[in-house]
Amino acid sequence: MAQKRKRLPNLDRVNPVDETGVNERVARFCTRSIKNDSKHTALKLVLSMIDLTTLEGQDTPGKVKQLCQKAIHLHDNLPGLPTVAAVCVYPNMVGIAKQALMGYGINVASVATAFPSGMSSRDIKLEETRNAVADGADEIDMVISRGAFLAGEYAYVFDEIAAVKEACGKAHLKVILETGELVTLDRVKKASVLAIQAGADFIKTSTGKIQPAATMQVTLIMLQTIREHYYATGEKVGMKPAGGISTSKLAIHYLVMLRETLGDEWMTPDLFRFGASSLANDVLMQLQRQADGLYQSPDYFSKD
Q1: CB 52 within 8 Å of CB 277
Q2: In Å, how far from its chain's centre is CA 12?
Q3: Which of 141, 165, 174, 189 is flagged as catalytic?
Q4: What angle do CA 284, 285, 289 make, to 5 degrees?
Q5: Which of 125, 165, 174, 240 is catalytic?
Q6: Tens of pLDDT, residue by residue, the chain (304 residues)
Q7: I need a surface site. Which of 64, 115, 259, 274 has the fewest CB within 10 A?
Q8: Regarding beta strands 238-240 and 202-204, do their DSSP bridges make them parallel or antiparallel, or are they unpaired?
């Protein structure tokens, strides 16, 4: 992706959000009829867009290795499956994941910048980012300083994102807005504009630790902001809804929204991801049902 010009935007000029219009559009996305052949293609696309994730205090090297094996062997009885896009872990687990995934074309993503709170000094955030990249992270998922953003300290947040982007080197940067703490769609739009202008390769809804996490309304606002940036500059920015997307049906609604908002060019893991842990299992169950007409029990699939 092209490097964005880092210039602090005037957020007072960001147009307010029409919440009624957003809700009406989201309702229409959820009524689209998907034929069986298209559904099969969509399910495989969803799989290819998943960042398979474990971000728990009880994570161990063994658990991360197990998750990597799941990423490599999603379902050996279903031929022709794509791989997931990435495995997302804490910074101290990056080396473990990198070694386990070597040669399989699956990226390693690492959260950073004092995830999930973001409550640390900038020096520590930058050191954590550099260490994760040095250990092999292909992607960094950073959290913004929500307290500073909500206090109107936009320059502080902007400069921090830009500094983390520089610390990423060749790794892609996903900027987590934690939309559940921003509360309003107007703030979500302003935070999206700020993150994009500061250099985000992706903008991401949530850490998954705060409720509400991803919603279709929030995601639509972020997609529309990406579209506005693309029309103005020709630069493509990716999108990652994360948290609460656990069923194939809901994931396909998101794909419908993505296609109708940004078009076919964004229908790729290079520009759209799902942050999820349980979504992959539901997608595999649906694909198995399409293959033999039978649902497998969730007990046949690992929890992580």
Answers
A1: yes
A2: 27
A3: 141
A4: 115
A5: 240
A6: 455 557 899 999 999 999 999 999 999 999 988 887 899 999 999 999 999 999 999 999 999 999 999 999 998 788 889 999 999 999 999 999 999 999 999 999 999 999 999 999 999 999 999 999 999 999 999 999 999 999 999 999 999 999 999 999 999 999 999 999 999 999 999 999 999 999 999 999 999 999 999 999 999 999 999 999 999 999 999 999 999 999 999 999 999 999 999 999 999 999 999 998 789 999 999 998 887 766 555 545 455 5
A7: 259
A8: parallel
Beta strand segments in the chain, E: 50-53, 86-89, 107-112, 139-143, 172-176, 202-204, 238-240, 274-276
Q: Is the peptide bond before 61 cis (omega within 30 degrees of 0)?
A: no
Q: What amino acid is encoded at 33 in this protein?
A: S
CA distance 67 to 100: 10
Pick the catalytic residue: 51, 125, 204, 282?
204
Q: Identify whether the C-beta of residue 205 lies closer than 8 Å to the C-beta of residue 218.
A: yes
Is 189 annotated as catalytic?
Answer: no
Tokens of 48: 């290819």
Annotation says 240 is catalytic: yes
Q: How far is CA 295 from CA 56, 192, 282, 287, in A?
A: 30, 40, 10, 9
**Cβ pair 6, 201 in contact under 8 A:** no
**Domains of the chain: residue spans and CATH:** 35-290 (3.20.20.70)
